[in-house]
Amino acid sequence: MPTFFVDRNLGKTFPKILSENNIDVITHDDIFEQSTPDEEWLEAAGKNGWYVITLDKRIRYVPVEKEAVKEFNIGLFVLSMKNMSMEERAYIFIKNYRRICRFINRTPLPFVATISRTGEINKKDLG
Predict the structure, then answer these.
(1) SS3 for 15?
(2) Each residue's pLDDT expressed in tens, for the chain with a length of 127 residues
(3) Dist. CA 56–CA 36, nearest whole Å
(4) In this structure, what CATH number is given to the domain that contains residue 38?
């Protein structure tokens, strides 16, 4: 069962719902200060083998963050579900949890993938 590190931009509701549905979750604020640079928590996620969930689609374009994803061998999921509540996003993640686990099992690290509102998972190029 994978452990998911939930970025601070997903607030408290999203990880709470995942946790209530027996998904192993660690939140950004469980470990880090709000001001912690992304590359620092990305390093911790990689070293601990946590899969990252975020709303930040820019991570794969910011050089220092993209390099952290590569260097620390991270599996990162970007929720591309515009105009949805955190509750709706959480339930889409839960509904597609088995699909997400299959994706993890067959996709070598590092990767960045989006999860759409339909549960479709698309791997993105890290360049």
Answers:
(1) helix
(2) 899 999 999 999 999 999 999 999 999 999 999 899 999 999 999 999 999 999 998 888 899 999 999 999 999 999 998 899 999 999 999 999 999 999 999 999 999 999 999 999 999 998 7
(3) 15
(4) 3.40.50
Q: Vertex 112, ends 109 and 115: CA angle to 5°? A: 125
The residue among 47, 58, 51 whose CA lies nearest residue 76 is: 51
User: In the chain, how many domains are there?
Assistant: 1
The length of the chain, given as a count of residues: 127
Whole-prediction pTM: 0.96
- Domain span including residue 32: 3-124
Give yes or no for a contact between 42 and 68, defined as CB atoms under 8 angstroms apart. yes
Q: What is the CA radius of gyration of the chain?
A: 13
CB under 8 Å to 26, separation ≥6 — which residues? 3, 4, 5, 6, 50
Rounded distance, CA 20 to CA 90, Å? 11
